[in-house]
Specification:
There is one protein chain. By secondary structure, the chain is mainly alpha-helical. It has a domain of about 35 residues. It has 2 helices and no strands. The chain is flat.
Amino acid sequence: MRKWNLWSLKVDSNVFTVTNKFFQRSAQGRMKYGVTTDRSDLDLVQWITHLQEELMDATIYLERILKEIKSDAT
């Protein structure tokens, strides 16, 4: 299996931006909550519930954005 040296690859600028955002978000979460996703105090149902809540928030944000787009189009 070939090993990739990430630093030698020409990375898509959008992938680079998103990757940096992941690192920043991880650092912020660790500072705010004092834990990472490596934590072992949550069971599978709790992890699923966290994800469900995040996805519901995302859906609400999308609805808000869609309303603005539709409003601007009229």
